[in-house]
Amino acid sequence: MDEQLLTMADLARRWQVHPTTIRNWINEGKLDPIKHLLPTVRFHPDYIRQIEEVTPGKMSFVERRKLKNEIEQLQKENEELKKATRTVYREFAKFMDLGLKEAWQ
Q1: What's residue 23's pLDDT?
Q2: Residues whose CB is less than 8 angstroms from the CB of residue 42 and which lie 6 or more positions away in sequence, other chains included
Q3: From the record, what ranges are coiled-coil (predicted)?
Q4: Nearest Cα residue to 48 out of 5, 9, 19
Q5: What is the SS3 assignment for 1?
Q6: What distance in Å separates the CA atoms of residue 33 and residue 41, rounded to the nearest whole number?
Q7: What is the pTM of this model?
């Protein structure tokens, strides 16, 4: 059974990037679409699977990009959690301060 060729949009969804990124990678020579189907850009699934394979000690540029995006997202979430924690501590300190004042009166 023949596998369906992938469009730039298919590949962008698969790799969780913008279609423009796929176009840039083609222009940079990182991706090599099937040439004989011009003007449409298509990729053979076997070719894409080869790119996605990661050998020990090496990562494909796709994996590196996914990890970079994940790190950036986690850093953002971490900063938001730190901010929320500081707010909780500050409010708790106010609460405790009020409780101590009432106890001494």
Answers
A1: 93
A2: 5, 6, 7, 33, 34
A3: 64-91
A4: 5
A5: coil
A6: 6
A7: 0.54
Q: Could you give phi then psi for residue 87, rounded to 5 degrees?
A: -65, -45
Give 102's pLDDT tier (boundaries 50, 70, 90): low
pLDDT in tens, 76-87: 999 999 999 999
CB 34 within 8 A of CB 44: yes
According to DSSP, the residues that pair with 42 across neighbouring strands are: 7
d(CA 15, CA 30): 14
- Under CATH, which number does the domain 1-53 receive? 1.10.1660
Q: Measured at the alpha carbon of residue 54, what is the angle toward residues 49 and 57, in degrees to the nearest 5? A: 165
As a whole number, the mean pLDDT across the chain is 85
Q: Where are the domains of the chain?
A: 1-53, 56-105
Ramachandran angles phi, psi of 43, nearest 5° = -130, 140
